[in-house]
Amino acid sequence: MPKDNRLARRIRLGRRCWVVMGPQQEPIECRISDISESGAKLEGHLNVELPQLLELLLTENGNVRRSCTVVWQVKNELGVRFLRRERRARAA
């Protein structure tokens, strides 16, 4: 069996998400196959040319999102690494 080089333990999820490639781009709906603290595997209609950096929307309204870098892409599967979380200032 090949050695698992992942940085963090993955959890199988199967939840809807949306990939945003840029500010003027429509989100692409897909599924999070598995997720960890450091990244995720996505499945869906992802056989398009993607930028190296993208936003992963974890809720349909986009309130929960993560900035990501593409680690690998094979047909309709995509591996992403989460970038550092930025804290948003709360409204007074």
Mean pLDDT reading: 85
In terms of DSSP E residues, the strand content is: over 45%
| Quantity of strands, as a count | 6
CATH topology: Thrombin, subunit H
Please tell me the CATH architecture by its name: Beta Barrel
Backbone shape: globular
Number of domains: 1
Which CATH class?
A: Mainly Beta
Question: Summed up, what is this model?
Answer:
By secondary structure, the protein is mainly β. The protein is 0% helix and 49% strand.
Structure, explained:
There is one protein chain. By secondary structure, this protein is an all-beta fold. It has one domain: Thrombin, subunit H (Beta Barrel). Helix content is about 0%, strand content about 50%. It has strands at about 10-20, 30-35, 40-45, 55, 65-75, 75-80. Strands 1-2-3-6-5-4 form a six-stranded antiparallel beta barrel. A hairpin with a 3-residue loop joins strand 2 (about 30-35) and strand 3 (about 40-45). The chain is globular. The N and C termini lie far apart (about 55 Å). About 10% of the residues are buried. The model has no long low-confidence stretch (mean pLDDT about 85).
